[in-house]
């Protein structure tokens, strides 16, 4: 379960335009990676994006992209798996579902007229 600090990390990570673009493209499969076709298609690595494919889309050095990815990993919105000399990235679906549920609950409560005081208790 995401606590308040976890949620803030997610919003900070996605609050940067470059990180948001990277995340959107990771999440929607906007990057193609040269993947070894001999690997089974159900293999996690065969489905993921590699760091070099991301870096090719920006005018930043690879270390800059890596720092952006580290911040997203620390916010638990992506996972990173190292295989041989490449690092593969995927969206963390569990975290994204949980943050989506959080927004869904906020909308439901807003529409039903639930009001919270500053200390998070209902009025």
Provide the low-confidence segments as ranges: 40-44
Structural class: mainly alpha
- Tell me the overall shape: elongated
Rounded Rg: 18 Å
What is the H-and-E element order? Answer: HHHEHHEEH
- Report the strand count: 3
Task: Name the descriptors.
3 strands; elongated; 53% helix; 123 residues; mainly alpha
Structure description:
17% of the residues are buried. Strand 2 and strand 3 form a beta hairpin. This protein has a three-stranded antiparallel β-sheet. The radius of gyration is 18 Å and the shape is elongated. It has helices at residues 4-14, 17-28, 44-47, 51-55, 62-74, 93-112; strands at 49-50, 78-83, 86-91. Helix 1 packs antiparallel against helix 5. The chain starts with a helix and ends in an 11-residue tail after the last helix. The chain contains six helices and three strands. It is mostly helical and 123 residues long.
Write the layout of secondary structure elements.
Layout lengths: L3 H11 L2 H12 L15 H4 L1 E2 H5 L6 H13 L3 E6 L2 E6 L1 H20 L11
Antiparallel strand pairs: 1-3, 2-3
Summary?
The protein is 53% helix and 11% strand. The protein has six helices and three strands, in the order αααβααββα. The two termini are 25 Å apart.
């Amino acid at each position: 379960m995401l606590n308040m600090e976890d949620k803030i990390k997610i919003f900070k990570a996605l609050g940067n335009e470059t990180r948001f673009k990277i995340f959107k493209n990771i999440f929607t499969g906007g990057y193609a990676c040269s993947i070894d076709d001999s690997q089974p298609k159900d293999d996690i690595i065969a489905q993921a994006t590699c760091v070099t494919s991301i870096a090719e889309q920006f005018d930043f050095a690879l270390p800059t992209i890596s720092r952006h990815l580290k911040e997203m990993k620390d916010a638990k919105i992506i996972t990173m798996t190292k295989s041989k000399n490449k690092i593969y990235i995927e969206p963390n679906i569990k975290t994204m579902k949980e943050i989506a549920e959080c927004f869904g609950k906020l909308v439901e409560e807003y529409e039903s007229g639930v009001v919270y005081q500053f200390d998070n208790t209902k009025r």
